[in-house]
Amino acid sequence: MLKEKLKNYNIILASGSPRRQQFFKDLAIDFTIQLKPVKEIYPKTLKAEEITNYLADLKSKAFTNLSDNDILITSDTIVWFDSKPLEKPKSRSEAFEMLMNMSGKQHQVYTSVCVKTSENQFLINDCTKVILKNYDASMINYYLDLEDYKDKAGSYGIQNWFGMTCVDRIEGNYYNVMGLPTEKLYNLLINLEQQVK
């Protein structure tokens, strides 16, 4: 359905995330991947979805010459815990500290998506609350040994071993925690032609 709607457009996914790329494949969207280096620095006064909105928009600004039939999609995800953002860990010890601090508590996962054409830009975001069970250092170390944490905001993926064993429950969209609010993005793209007119 969406593939037919977008057949006259060149969909550009500006993300190196294998999870986001797989989402696009699963949604039956024909797309190309284009990556441009962006320093993901944001004003420290920003909070929660303000951060992901800013970064998704910032990533889109690296693409300055979109053609009339181009649709650029950029995205950003953070974990918001204890009134501060948890991004991708820089080391194993940082990942351990993040996960230890979150044990038995809740946090929010924010994802923003910027959809940009040569004439218009749309920004959507979503928030999912994640409640973790109590776990100990041995479970964290086992998970870190698997090395699934390195490219993930908050040091974990809900779809991997940690998510399957340490997430008690979520409130909101599961796919948003994986890095893309698929339902909101699908609805935006399926109605894109009506919104740009």
What does this structure look like?
The protein has 197 residues and is α/β, with parallel strands linked by helices. It is 36% helix and 25% strand. It contains nine helices and seven strands; from the N terminus they run H-E-H-E-H-E-E-H-E-E-H-H-E-H-H-H. Strands 1, 2, 3, 4, 5, 6 and 7 form a seven-stranded mixed sheet that branches. Helix 2 links the parallel strand 1 and strand 2. Helix 4 crosses helix 5. The longest helix has 12 residues. It is elongated. The protein starts with a helix and ends with a helix. The model has no long low-confidence stretch (mean pLDDT 94).
Pick out its properties:
single chain; 197 residues; alpha/beta; 7 strands; 36% helix; 25% strand
Question: Helices and strands in order, then pairings?
Answer:
Elements lengths: L1 H4 L4 E4 L4 H9 L5 E2 L15 H12 L9 E12 L2 E3 L5 H11 L3 E11 L4 E12 L4 H9 L15 H6 E5 L2 H5 L3 H9 L1 H5 L1
Parallel strand pairs: 1-2, 1-3
Antiparallel strand pairs: 3-4, 3-5, 5-6, 6-7
